[in-house]
Each structure stands twice: as C-alpha cells, then as structure tokens.
Amino acid sequence: MRVQLIGFGNIGQGLARVLLEKEKYLEKRHGLKLRVVSISDISGTVVDEEGVDLKRALEVVEREKKIIGYPGEEMSGLEAIKTVDAEVVIEVTPSNIKTGEPGLSHMLAAMKRGKHVVTSNKGPLALEFKKLKETAEKKGVAFRFEASVGGAMPLVNLATEMLSGDEIYAIEGILNGTTNYILSRMTKEESPLELVLREAQELGIAETDPSYDIDGVDTASKLVILANAIMGVDASYRDVKIQGIRKITPEAIKLAKEDGYVIKLVGEVKNSHLEVAPRLVPVNHPLNVDGVLNVALLRADIAGDITIVGKGAGARETNSAILSDVISIWKNGACL
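^ that's the sequence the OP posted. Answer follows.
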C-alpha cells in the first residue's frame, strides 16, 4: 500500500515512529506492506516511490525543524496529492475551525483523484462533513476519520460497524482531556481555574493559547463529527450551542461536591440538538472520569447504554486510530 503523509508535526512524526515499530507486525498479522511514498509539511515535500526512509525523515525534522532538509523540494501538500502516485492520503495537518483549510482542500483533492483518505483533522469535518462524505461516495473511495474524535477510543467504528443494527439516539461525553484535567484538579484542590490552567500549561497538557479547549471549541468540533457520522445529523460546528469553563469558580465546585456532584464539560447531541456546556454530574455517574481521560456514553435502542473510556489525546493514542483505519481500508480490499 502506497501512502502519502500530509502533515509532519506531532501526529505525523508519531505515525512515522509507530510505522517503524509495527512494520514487521503489520506484514505478519495483516499481510500489509506499507510504503510512505511522500511526506509533506509547510516547508515542502519529500518523495520516494520506493518508500521514504522514515528514520532519516525523523532525524532531519528533529535537526532542521522541517522536512525539506531531507532533502526534498518546494512542493506543497496539495501539489503532492495531485502528482504523486499513491492509494491512500493520511491528512494530519493542524485543525482550522474557521475555514477547514488547508485540510479540506487536501481531502477533497485526494478523493477527486481516487485516493482513500484517513485523517485526524477535526476542522474540515466539523465544517463540511456532508460535502466530504458525498465526495468520497461519488468517487468510490474510503473516508476514515476515527482519529478525529477521542484519540484511541473507537467511537465511530464501534457505532457504525459493531452497533450497525442499533439506532443511536443520543450521545453525551467528555471529549476534551485538557478541560477534564483542569476541572478534576479544581475539584480535588478547590483551586481557581487560572492557577490550575497555568500548571497544566507548564506540564504541556494545555496549550499556550488554551481557548480552543477551555472555550469548548474542541469538544464542539468532535460532537459535530459524532452526530453526523453516527446519528446521521446534518450539522456543522456553527449549529452547536457552546459554553466553556471560564466562569467555573472554586465556590461552584465546592457547592457541587457538597451535594454529591462534580462539574464536567459535557457535549451532548439529542433530537438533532447539539450543546456543549458545564454540567453537574453525580459522583457515581459513568461520565465522572478523572484527569485527562475522555468518556462517551452512547444510547442505543437495542444495546442500551454503552460507555467508552480512554485517552482522548496524544500522538501515540491518535495514531492507534489512524493505523486502525489504514488496516481497515487494506482488509476491505480497497488497495489490493
């Protein structure tokens, strides 16, 4: 299987490490010999039809901070998709919730050229899910995006494959590890958000600009993807009612604890209504998970309530989902 990797930041580099680690296992277990024939980042593209030396690519990026030092050429990811021969495009560029670019153009270009798409990029899906899905169906290619929601948690594949006979009529969950860590610490220590956030940034759990997480944007993006993919809701990010955690105080945390509750940032879709907001969750409720963990509760008409808990972020965890999607495409005979 010939693969193009678009994006070589934390997720892309993490994928390269996983592929080096799992090379023999993939061939022995699945009969899959995977060749990364191009790698693109903002500086340019490296192309090798026999397979890019992933170890060398990682060394170059660590030293040069860009893939072009491989050496490569000043070819954009979009140009690489249009010109390099491959079956699968793995799109892992940073998420852009305002326009979806450049990921949206990358995915559409790949599909229009008959290439399967695997992605962890939330922005394009949160804004243009219907367009992406319809383009993939029209061109007869696979569109896999398990890694865009919940890291290593197999939410989409579980619901659409293992529970394909069920109607999922509601989904609620904690879909952002950063906010869950902050609220967990605030609950244990009754400390103000500003202090816990600063510590989370020092630990690398929160970004320098944490607004994407604490304002509920990340949770809303993931909720849209789940609603569209699992429940067939035709929604975009703009349809979500969002409230973040900036106004949560130690006093509110304390009052909740006294009544047997914790405060969590919960995303919910029900009756085509999508909302992200802080909620009171009973201490013994399945949604009360600690630290950076994510949790999702699927409400199904036959199976009943199903709860999935796992690490919702991290390069290695996200690449577990990416690899699963790649293997699925291979096993379904799309690249034989």
